[in-house]
Structures are given as C-alpha cells and as structure tokens.
Amino acid sequence: MALRGDAVRTKILELLQKNTDRYTSGEDVSQLFSISRAAVSKHVSVLRGQGHEIEAVTRKGYRLVRKAEKMTQDVVRQGLTTTVFGQHDIHYLPSVGSTNLEAMKLALGDAPEGTVVVADEQTGGRGRQGRTWHSPSGCGLYVSVVLRPDIAPNEAPLITLLTNVAAAEAVQDLTDIIPVCKWPNDVLIDGCKVAGNLTEVFLSGDSVGHVISGAGINVAPLPEKLVPELRTVPCSLEEAAGKHISRVELLQAFLTRYEHWYLLVTKQGFAPLLSRWKELTDVVGKELTVQVRGETFSGTVVDVSTDGMLVLQDENGIEHSLFSGDIL
Ligand code: BTN
C-alpha cells in the first residue's frame, strides 16, 4: 500500500537523519519508498518548507544539515508514535499569554482529549500558587494538553504527579541524566529546578469535566535578570547536559511518556504511576517544612498517599496529609 505524503516525508527524514555524515542519492530514496524521482524532490521541498535544512548536491544526493526547530504540527508529528496525545490538533503559537489559558478555551469549545498547545514564548506564563513562569522566547518548552479523564475529583492531584513523571522521563530521554521529582510538581537536576507543571482541574457537577495539564521545561538558560526573582534556583537542560537540546524532540518525548502513563492509569488505576513517581523522588523519609496557604508544617515525610497527598509526621507523632503546598 502506498504511504501517505506526510508518512513518506517522515520516512525520508528518518533516512536522512540516520545518514547525516553522507549524501543519500535521490535514486536510493525513490527505490526505497517506491516513488518517482520527481516525487522525492517534491517531498524534500516540503520538508525544507517545514524548516528542515537539507543540502542537495548534483550527482551525490541529499544530506540533512539540521532538523527543524519550530514546534509546528507537521514537524512534531514526524516520528511521533503516540496514538492520542498530539494526534489531534497541535496548536503551535510563536507567542501566547499562557498555553494553559489557550488550552482551556479550546477545551470549553469541545477540543478532544490529547489536544496540544505549545508556544515559543509566553508573555503571561503561570506557575503554581499564582506565581509567574518566566517563558522567554526559545528558552524552554511551554506546553499544555487537554485531558478528559474519568477520575474522581479527589484523584486529581495524581494528574500533577503523572505530569511530573512524564516531564522527568522526557528530561532523562534527552539528557541521559536521571532527574529527581520533588513533590508535587518540580523536576530537579542536582537540586536545581528544570521543570514544573500547572495542572488545572475543571469540575462538571460533582465529577471531573476536563483537566489542563501544562508543563514548562527550561531548555536554555534564562536571561540573568529573571533569575533572582525565582524561588528555587533554576537551571536548564542544555547547561546540565552540556549539549544542544531540541525542543521538538523534547516535546515528542514528553507526549510519548505522557501517553504511556495516562493510558496505563486508564487501564490499571494510579498505583503503577505512584510507584514510578516514588522511584523518581527522594522525598520519603526526609525532614522538611511545607507551606500550605500561609500555614507551615514541619516533620518527616512518611509517605505519599494513594491520592497523591504528602503525609508528614510532626514531632508529636501526628500525621498531616497535605493536598498541595510548597516544600521550603
Ligand atoms: C510551577 O512550577 O510553578 C508550574 C509551572 C508551569 C508552567 C507551564 S508552562 C506551560 C503552561 N502554561 C502556563 O501558563 N503554565 C504552564
């Protein structure tokens, strides 16, 4: 069966990506995918139009110089193996106030589960507890996904942990560094925050209607002037890994990891996800202080409950189950 145009382009791109050290002849591409030489040249033009830099030399062939960096739907879909996340609309915006707010509007307009909003820059990026998420152009991955989970409202905090796991695993996929998950939503490398998520739940009567899960991952260093305002010292994947990180590949990894855990939760509930989150955190057993809406609780973390609450035992042996808060 003949492949669809975008499927052929994905294959051509994969082929060129495997052979960046040499030229691949138009004849080889045409034979491999059973298409004419003219069709090969057309597909290469489309790939170039998408932002891929492809060199063409007479009698030698094609060579991929650099993959596209813009997170447009076509580019993100190339090689994306998910079935739901990113397979509906991917709304790519060069600049937006907040991807979460944009995704919220789409969800209210019946956007299906798995709809993605991604931006190069956010002018009003939102963090937890009303904080700002600095989102300068090109410095990070700013992405939100629309979810319509069949869960009880008390399970909603677990979606924060799911997003936390997906972000941590995507970070590991791209950097080979195993990061640490900090309850409830931070991803740390050597104690520095590289990612956070803001998961917003919308109830419909007594049940969960839709959820917007937004993740921010620092890819390149933030401009100096923004850093002192931040609560936890931030750092970026490029600083930690010492190499260029493609935001397109990071987004693909995030959506793939997200889908894996989300579909598993649908089939098996939250238990496997919670065990995975516990593998990635070092919070259990730690003595710490947590601020919850102006009140502070100090003690030893004895567990994270099945509904995602941090269980802190104070010096009098009393256990406090904290739904949300900031570890100080
Ligand atoms: C935090 O650590 O406080 C959460 C940060 C969440 C930031 C992301 S960036 C994409 C999405 N859009 C927003 O406005 N916020 C989230």
Automatic annotation (TrEMBL):
Pfam families to which the protein is assigned, alphabetical: BPL_C, BPL_LplA_LipB, HTH_11
Residue ranges annotated for the BPL/LPL catalytic domain, each copy included: 77-266
Domain of life, per lineage: Bacteria
Enzyme Commission number: 6.3.4.15
EC primary class: ligase
Keywords for this protein: ATP-binding, Biotin, DNA-binding, Ligase, Nucleotide-binding, Repressor, Transcription, Transcription regulation
Reactions accelerated catalytically: biotin + L-lysyl-[protein] + ATP = N(6)-biotinyl-L-lysyl-[protein] + AMP + diphosphate + H(+)
Gene Ontology terms, MF aspect: ATP binding; biotin--[biotin carboxyl-carrier protein] ligase activity; DNA binding
Gene3D superfamilies recorded: 2.30.30.100, Bira Bifunctional Protein, Domain 2 (3.30.930.10), Winged helix-like DNA-binding domain superfamily/Winged helix DNA-binding domain (1.10.10.10)
DNA-binding region: 26-45
GO biological process, alphabetically ordered: regulation of DNA-templated transcription
SUPFAM superfamilies for the chain: C-terminal domain of transcriptional repressors, Class II aaRS and biotin synthetases, Winged helix' DNA-binding domain
GO cellular component: cytoplasm
CDD domains: BPL (cd16442), HTH_ARSR (cd00090)
Residues that bind biotin: 98-100, 122, 126-128, 193
Keyword Nucleotide-binding: yes
InterPro entries named among the record's database cross-references: aa-tRNA-synth_II/BPL/LPL, ArsR-like_HTH, Bifunct_BirA, Biotin_CoA_COase_ligase, BPL_C, BPL_LPL_catalytic, HTH_11, Transcriptional_repressor_C
Keyword DNA-binding: yes
Family to which this protein belongs: Belongs to the biotin--protein ligase family.
Described function: Acts both as a biotin--[acetyl-CoA-carboxylase] ligase and a repressor.
Listed HAMAP family: Bifunct_BirA
Full protein name: Bifunctional ligase/repressor BirA
